[in-house]
Write a structure and sequence with these properties.
Elements lengths: L27 H8 L50 H4 L17 H5 L11 H21 L8 H4 L6 H6 L6 H15 L1 H17 L6 H20 L6 H24 L1 H19 L2
Helix pairs in contact: 4-11, 7-9, 7-10, 8-9, 8-10, 10-11
């Protein structure tokens, strides 16, 4: 029969108890010092008879961050915050192009960008451009858009006679512009998502890298979606507009999905022609 005893009991003259399994393991030197009744600084006295079994840490006062202690000199000088006035916040040194997260290009850098056009050579190129032209006419008819050039003498007027141009049918109203833009942006985010999804699945099937196309296409889809959400802060679409978006998205997504499965090259040619038409729309 074995007993678990404290090391202090082993120092007594009654050696009838056998200490076979100590409660805590000590080094040989520490055990010899404890059995000899000595308690030097190097010896552990955590289990001595006069040592408390436990210490209540809840009695220790909780230190509050930022509170001044008796020996403290106050908060650190770097922690002292100053309140800035409106004049300081709107100072030209605190605002400008450098505060934007996107790349900033100079006028000289933007002038180096040349307007290019890929000529239609193959039958697929001609079909892609023809399909975009057909969709453009249908979209213009649905939104009431007319591609009529505005005379130069009206464009030079300051301010621009917007009401007069709208009466003549040369400009769309604010409501029709928002309807056109919301419909266009809701469809513009489809090609990137379809292309990224199919290339992702092909990379999984073929067990090969994609070369960065997946991320590029998905990023393009995200960019178009953010355009839509930006215009959503200006006006909320009606129930009729939502129905048009649902019909256009359901039709275009499935048609483009099948097109990309059959011929990815034709699908990319179609998107290229579509972006050229978008440039004409936004620069009119």
């Amino acid at each position: 029969m074995s007993f678990l005893v404290r090391p202090a009991i082993l120092t007594r003259s009654t050696g009838c108890l056998v200490h076979q399994q100590p409660f805590r393991h000590f080094s040989i030197a520490s055990r010899a010092l404890l059995q000899a009744g000595k308690s030097p600084q190097s010896a552990s006295t955590a289990l001595a008879s006069h040592a408390p079994e436990s210490k209540d840490r809840r009695a220790t006062p909780v230190q509050v961050v930022g509170a001044e202690l008796p020996a403290a000199e106050g908060p650190h000088y770097q922690d002292q915050m100053t309140v800035m006035t409106d004049n300081e916040l709107t100072h030209p040194s605190r605002i400008g192009a450098w505060t934007l997260f996107n790349p900033i290009y100079t006028q000289a850098e933007m002038n180096t960008v040349k307007i290019v056009h890929r000529p239609t050579q193959t039958v697929g190129d001609k079909v892609a451009h023809g399909a975009v032209k057909l969709l453009r006419r249908m979209f213009d008819l649905a939104t009431g858009y007319k591609s009529i050039p505005i005379p130069d003498h009206l464009l030079k007027m300051d301010p621009l006679p917007v009401k007069e141009l709208r009466k003549k049918g040369l400009l769309l109203s604010e409501k029709n512009w928002l309807l056109r833009i919301i419909l266009l942006e809701s469809v513009a985010g489809v090609p990137g998502m379809v292309g990224g999804t199919l290339r992702h699945l092909r990379s999984l099937r073929s067990l090969r890298r994609d070369g960065g196309w997946i991320h590029t296409l998905l990023e393009e889809a995200e960019n178009e979606r953010m355009h839509l959400l930006t215009f959503m802060t200006i006006a909320q679409p009606t129930a009729f507009t939502r129905a048009l978006i649902l019909a256009a998205q359901g039709t275009f997504y499935n048609a483009f999905f099948l097109t990309y499965l059959i011929s990815p090259t034709f699908a990319h040619r179609f998107v290229g022609a579509l972006e050229e038409e978008a440039v004409r729309t936004y620069t009119h």
